[in-house]
């Protein structure tokens, strides 16, 4: 009979252990709520109490807060909450001082737990805030910063995102076709990027910062709109609601955003047109560039098979282009007239 009961009744911790576990979970949740609130308020001093060296002082491992924990309502972590703080809300003279950018920096640069092996003979923090973590609507912290328009935070998150993209550890995780992808162009559940949010909220300086770091201005949301389209829609909607009293500041911000986005779109289209012209002009420039690349690689070729493969690929492309050139060569009479030819 004893064996039967043992099989029916699952093993459970003693009541004292259950109480300790429940208390630990409550403490952890309380700390996480306070951490998120400090980030949401831009309260740098309060935020310091829950991360870094202080993290280890908050009881057992089961009781300590997870800096990446999300709130119930929006699924946002502390990093996104701090990134969402607007520049005009910052006040170094407030009590306590409010500084969202410093809170973002603190979260990303502070060690959040004991060290562990990195698998390569070194060590790394056991807990580190996830820079590209998404909320319920798949928004990143960078998107949140672009919504609020806090330029200092946007620039800092752009810098950290580029560092993240370039790190060998993260590149190794990506499939080959995504090696050149940048998380600056992450899209939310509506297909909107950080640049689209900056444009939609009429933050021209944030648009400039993103474009200068090669955020893609041509990406469309799932509704088929580019960042420029969203600016137009904002103005169109505002004029429909109150055509005579559209805020001058709104108009000025929209105009600057449009100029910045149009200039980048023009640059991209000009590059594409130049490439098309080069190809249509008997491929002369393309062939010349490939010949230079072929000669350079040939000089550097030693016993490395990878380099030999590169050389073979360049030679193959050169042969294909020369064949296309031969097939598309103009008549002899036309060649004689314009003095062009290979």
Percentage of β-strand residues: under 5%
Morphology call: globular
The CA-CA distance between the termini, in Å, is 97 Å
Number of strands: 2
Low-confidence stretches: 1-12, 300-307, 332-342
Order of helices and strands: HHHHHEEHHHHHHHHHH
- Mean pLDDT figure: 77
Helix content: 55-70%
For the largest sheet, list the strands in their spatial order: 1-2
Helix-strand makeup class: mainly alpha
Largest sheet: 2 strands, antiparallel
How many DSSP H or I helices?
15
Descriptive labels:
342 residues; mainly alpha; two-stranded antiparallel sheet; 2 strands
Explain this structure to me?
The protein has helices at residues 2-8, 15-41, 44-47, 78-83, 100-109, 141-148, 151-166, 168-172, 194-200, 204-212, 227-241, 248-280, 284-300, 305-327, 332-338, and strands at residues 115-117, 123-125. The model is unreliable at 1-12, 300-307 and 332-342 (pLDDT under 50). It is globular. The chain has a two-stranded antiparallel sheet with strand order 1-2. The chain has 15 helices and two strands. It has 342 residues and is mostly helical. Helix 9 (194-200) packs antiparallel against helix 10 and helix 13 packs antiparallel against helix 14. It has a domain at 284-326.
List the helices and strands and how they pair.
Layout: H1 2-8, H2 15-41, H3 44-47, H4 78-83, H5 100-109, E1 115-117, E2 123-125, H6 141-148, H7 151-166, H8 168-172, H9 194-200, H10 204-212, H11 227-241, H12 248-280, H13 284-300, H14 305-327, H15 332-338
Antiparallel strand pairs: 1-2
Helix pairs in contact: 5-7, 6-7, 6-9, 7-10, 9-10, 9-11, 10-12, 11-12, 13-14
